[in-house]
Structures are given as C-alpha cells and as structure tokens.
Amino acid sequence: MIGWALERTLEDDLTVAALRMALELRRPAPGLVHHSDRGSQYASGDYTDLLKAHGCQSSMSHKASPWENAGCESWMKTLKYEKGYRQEYRDLAEARASIGQFIDKVYNQKRLHSALGYRPPVEFEQALAASSVVEVCAGAAHTARGARGKGKAAARATVRRR
Predict the structure, then answer these.
(1) Which among 18, 42, 45, 124 is placed 20 to 30 Å from 72, CA to CA?
(2) How many domains are contained in the chain?
C-alpha cells in the first residue's frame, strides 16, 4: 500500500489524494498502467488528468468482472477486518493515525502475502526494483468504524510491480 486517504465521504478528491500520494512517493516512469474498478471517482476529470499528467495509462475492470480487481478488494477486506471492525475511533484523526501505522509498520513491512511468494510488500518491491513493468491498482470502500459505528470512506492507490 503506497497511497491512501481517509475521509467521511467518498468523493473524487479522496481518490485523487491517494493517487497523488502514491505518485509522489514512487515517482514512476511514464507508461505506468493504472488499473481500477469502474467507480465514477476513477473516471472523474481530476483523477484521469492526474494520471495523464504523470504519463500513466488507465485501465478499468470490465463490467460485472469483480475478480479483475481482486488484489485491491482483498486489501480492503484486510483493512476492514484488522482496523475497521475490531476498533472504534474517537475521531477521524485517530482513525487516520491508527490506519497509517498499520499500513506502514504492519501491512507493508511484516505481513506475508501469498500472492507475493509469502513475502511482505516492501521485500517483494525491493526484489523487483529492476523490473520495468509497473501496475497501479486502485479502489475505494467504506472502512473504519467511528465511535458511533459510522463508516468512513477510504481510498487507496497501490503501486505494484509485475
């Protein structure tokens, strides 16, 4: 998980913020393939303009083909289970801090992923540093539960090397 954002609603600004974070942290070469589901926030002008400005090629799942974005859907299931359903947050700032710590210290650094040869994402990415094919997977879902049980919207943009 490279870029992420958390807000109370799912607007295109949220997904743009997650994408911007991923692009700034990794600075991929032009030609990056960005794959997402068919959500309207990924087809918005601001989002597609940001992709184009960084030389990225957009790819969207086919209609009624949720398995095409299975890696991102699996990530959202993990986040909901680990940080959303097990914990209540006093406010959005506490949720952001907790989720950020989980992403940076647990999910990316320690969590073993079967799809990555049972290695954590950081180790996998280091092993593929020489690869020239990069894919970005994006998606959004309601994740963190607040003190009143209200869902928050989260967006992610994950830079993965193939």
Answers:
(1) 45
(2) 1
Q: Write the CB contacts of 111 (distance below 8 Å, at least 6 apart in sequence).
A: 78, 120, 121
One digit per residue, the tens of pLDDT, for the chain of length 162 reads 889 999 988 888 999 999 999 999 989 889 988 888 888 888 899 999 999 999 998 888 888 777 777 878 888 888 888 888 888 899 999 999 999 999 999 999 999 988 889 999 999 988 887 565 555 555 544 434 343 344 444 555 555 544
**Tokens matching residue 143:** 């994740």
Tokens of 119: 């290695």
Distance (Å, whole) CA 139 – CA 77: 12
Q: Hey, which residues does 153 pair with through a beta bridge?
A: 7, 142
Specify which residues 119 forms β-bridges with: 113
pTM for this entry: 0.71
Which phi and psi angles does 73 have, rounded to 5°? -65, -40
Alpha-carbon dihedral sign for residues 47, 53, 56, 58: positive
Judge whether 2 lies within some domain.
no
Contacts of 22 (CB under 8 A, 6+ apart): 2, 3, 136, 157, 158, 159
